[in-house]
Amino acid sequence: MRGTVRKISIPRRLVIDLMRASIRVPFVSLKRNLDISPLLEARALVGKPPGWAAIFVKAFAIVAKDQPVLRTLYAHWPWPHFYELPRSVAMVATARVEDGEDCVLPEKVADADTLSLTEIHNKIQFAKTAPVEQVPAFRKILRTTRLPLPLRRLFWVVGLNFGRQRGNWFGSFGVTSVAAFGAGELQALSPGPYIVTYGTLNPDRTIDVMLRWDHRVTDAALIAKTMTRLEQVLNTEIAAELRSLRQAAEPKPVRAVAT
């Protein structure tokens, strides 16, 4: 059958390179239904609440702050070893349309546990709407993606195999979801070591969350504990911050002055 030859766009080339880098990572998945009733009650109080991506980015970063293995990478060079990062770096899958083509680009959010939900949300929204050249993370990775194949492969080899560069290029965890486009279970791939995905809200005020991890780094017992801690953080620290947003937005009472 005669078809049409089409050029691979730069964003699609990025995905191809990313999948090549991810294919040998021994991912294992744990899915759990989290009860987030307190979080939903707090979020309902805010007129324009931060998006779910921002919520999960900050929640996981808080969990990882006290659990170094959640900031640990597997690196190959100069010999196989683990590399513990001093802080969490999230890579958020950002859906965009470039030159009429749907694509996904990774936005970098470092130190999310020290940022406010509003700051994280605004950073993600900027990455969704701003011109590509105005988003530093996009500029960096697309500049490499435009290189000829031999040079591109060299950059990926360096970025993947040295712990320090792994953290700079690919972060310590990823956050992605298709919940904005409807229900569905997404089993994403990345160079690792952790990927958080979440679904749509369920009628019983729960949400399905999947955590995929590089099995070379840790085992399922710790991931199960991480899920429990994640649920706790969502319903305590994150819910408390949302309530504080409501309080900050409330107009202060005007005190009458006698004349």
Describe what this molecule looks like in 3D.
With 259 residues, this protein is α/β, with parallel strands linked by helices. It has one domain: Chloramphenicol acetyltransferase-like domain (Chloramphenicol Acetyltransferase, 2-Layer Sandwich). The chain is 42% helix and 22% strand. β2 (72-75) and β3 (81-84) form a beta hairpin. α2 (37-43) runs parallel beside α8, α3 crosses α8 and α6 (149-161) crosses α7. The model has no long low-confidence stretch (mean pLDDT 92).
CATH class value: Alpha Beta
Distance between the termini: 90 Å
Gyration radius, rounded = 20 Å
Q: How many domain units?
A: 1
CATH topology: Chloramphenicol Acetyltransferase
Percentage of helical residues?
Answer: 40-55%
Largest sheet: 6 strands, mixed
Query: How are the strands of the largest sheet arranged?
Result: 1-8-7-6-4-5
Mean pLDDT: 92
Which residues sit in consecutive blocks of at least 5 with pLDDT less than 50? none
